[in-house]
Amino acid sequence: MDILVSGLLLAGTYALMALGLNLQYGVARIMNLANGEMLVLGALAAFWLYINAQVSPLLTVVMVGPIAFIGNWLIYRFLLVPLVKRSKNQGQLEVDSILATFGMSFFIVGIMVSIEGGFFAYKYLSETISILGSTSSLNRLAAFLLAVVIGGSLYLWLNRTRTGVAVRAVSVSTEAAGLVGIDVPKMSALAFALGGAVTSMGGSLISTFYTLDASVGVIFTMKALIIVIMGGVGDVRGTIVAAIILGIVETAVATLVDPGLTLASAYFIFLLILLFRPQGLFGRRTA
Amino acid sequence: MSRSGFKELAIAACLAILAGFVPLVFNNYWLSISVTAMMYIALCTSWVMFSGPTHYISLASGAFFGIGGYLVATGMSDYQMSFWLMAGISALVATILAGLIGAATLRLSGVYFVIFTLGLAEMIRNLVSWVQNNFLGSRGLYVLTDFTEAHIYWMLLVLAAAAYFLGWYINRSRLGFALRIIGNDETVARHVGINTATAKIVLFMTTGFFGALVGAVIAPRYSYIEPNQVFSPELSFMVVIMALLGGAGRLWGPIVGVIPFTLVWEYVSLQFPNQTTMFIGLIFLLIVFVLPNGIVGRLEQVAVKIRQGGH
Fold first, then answer.
1. What residue ranges in A48-140 does DSSP mark as E strands?
2. What is the least distance, in Å, from the CA of B48 to any CA of chain A?
3. Beta bridge partners of A130
4. Are B118 and A218 in contact (CB < 8 Å)?
């Protein structure tokens, strides 16, 4: 029970970062390997503002969203669009975007190290509470609830608004979306920026109960990728289910075996997915 | 074509022989830099063998390198095995591991492969630390040999030359031809009857083999080994950077990339020790935006232009 509760609470923020990556890869077709660094940037903002100005991390989340949106939009517009235009096919774009986002991730880590070289450790809402008979802390619950609100509104936006439908159409097929009059480059930029914003907000949330440091981003990139592949590229529902699975399995391994093995357990899931359902949990097999 | 292939090999052989004299001429400081450079030349050459033709970015070098270093250290420290035996075992283990990774990921699209190798070194490091702490008792591992820096350098040179020769040989073989077709268009490759998965897996296994051997050979340099230190994800990125900087389209591209990068890196890490990560990031961006085919690709472009201008 303890494992289920804390696994589920952890899954909330995992789902956010994976949703962000899924928007970027599924719609904008950019394999963003700097995703984890976007998350850590959000965490650093929350930490820095709390330590230096006593700003509540929950307020920081609201501020991080628009800033990260603009930042990611600029990155897409000025760094990635030239690559999209240059590439002759999807494979070429994948290689180029992987290398370019590696560059960005190292660059961002470099900047973050110069701001704060140590751990982003601070205490916020760390009172213990009891949920369904198992103990947890208030910050985990608050982070989870906010993640549900953000993820929920993203889901509604994608399914209920005109722009949301356009974004999903691009994710199904760029050519077909272009033919029915959707501005594909604009939607891709929007999806990329939004993805970055959602991931960074997830980072601010996770920093309230999880101690990060500047170089930990790649681990989160890895986990987000595993979730996206497990859930299926472009599939919001699948991403959420996959995030819950990863959150619970990781928590189980951390409590029952060793906390040092969480990445290994994520890899184990990844391997199973690759061997048995490479198209994702809910994905349909393409020929 | 065939004649120019042999000419290339002859030039490489001359360079290798010349490189063999480095420890006799250089002082200790330069020799130590040369060892590092030679280590990366060996790693990058074997990286280019696989990633050059297939365009699959492998980040597994750190993991294979770590297996080499760690197995040599455990075997010598805990089981009194000889260095040579352990180096052989580690190469075997890494080759098998590469085969398994390849079998799991290389049948699918390239992205899965990159993602899988991205966290590989870190994951193996976690597993090894866990085993070490819980079952073997956590103590440092010592690699005590009577190798000097010069011996290590020569061994690395032999490995680099072997990797180059193998790459040259594969390039001229049916396998190399198959790989170039895969790299250009995998669907076409499948339709003309190439077993694409097997070809990729076999080539990836050679990368594992050389990675582990380099890790094993360099282990005596550090004498004291910890899993945290040998399974380094940074190493994988360094290999990718240097190989791409030189140019992955040619087997000798890495040599052109490694030597300037090692020198600049030495300077940057001395002068700006806190900005090294940012520097790596900038070089990656430089490669993607300015030198997509590496220095070699740019030189060839210039050469073509000059030739056309002469007409």
1. 119-120, 128-131, 134-137
2. 15
3. A135
4. yes
Question: A134: which strand partners?
Answer: A131
Within A4-141, strands assigned E span 119-120, 128-131, 134-137
A70 has a pLDDT exceeding 90: yes
Distance CA B77, CA B301 (A): 52
From B269, B280, B289, B200, select the one nearest B233 (Cα to Cα).
Answer: B280
User: The CATH number of A2-276 is which of 3.30.70, 1.10.3470, 1.10.10, 1.20.1050?
Assistant: 1.10.3470
B77 reaches A (C-beta below 8 A): no
Q: Reduced to 3 states, what is the DSSP secondary structure of residue B55?
A: coil
Strands (E), chain A: 119-120, 128-131, 134-137, 212-213
User: How long, in residues, is chain A?
Assistant: 287
Chain B nearest-CA distance from A273, in A, is: 10
* Structure tokens given for A48: 């820095």
- Separation of alpha carbons A213 and B297, rounded Å: 38
Alpha-carbon distance B15 to nearest alpha carbon in chain A (angstroms): 31
The sign of the CA dihedral A127, A129, A134, A136 is negative
Q: Which of A205, A250, A154, A221 is nearest to A47 (CA)?
A: A205
Domain boundaries, chain A: 2-276
The beta-carbon neighbor of A109 closest among B114, B115, B277 is B277
A260 and B130: CB-CB below 8 Å?
A: yes
Rounded CA separation A264/B125 (Å): 10
b/e for A60-99, b at 16 or more Cβ within 10 A? bbeebbeebbebbbebbeebbeebbeebeeebebbbbbbb
Contacts of B130 in chain A (CB under 8 A): 258, 260-261, 264
Listed in sequence order, the residues at least 6 apart from B87 whose beta carbon sits closer than 8 Å to its beta carbon are B68, B72, B213, B216, B217
Q: Output the pLDDT for position B2.
A: 55
What is the pLDDT tens value at each position of chain B, 311 positions in all? Answer: 456 678 888 888 888 888 887 888 888 888 888 888 999 999 999 999 888 888 888 899 999 999 998 888 888 877 878 888 888 999 999 999 999 998 888 877 778 888 888 888 888 888 888 888 887 766 667 777 778 888 888 999 999 999 988 988 888 888 888 888 887 887 888 888 888 888 889 999 999 999 999 999 988 888 788 777 788 888 899 999 999 888 887 888 888 889 889 899 888 888 888 888 888 889 889 888 888 888 888 888 888 888 887 55
- Reduced to 3 states, what is the DSSP secondary structure of residue B251? coil
Closest by Cα among B69, B64, B72 to B102: B64
Decide if pLDDT at A91 tops 60. Answer: yes
AA letter at A100: A
- Domain layout of chain B by residue ranges: 2-232
How far is residue A181 CA from its own chain's centroid? 29
Check residue B185 and report its DSSP letter: -
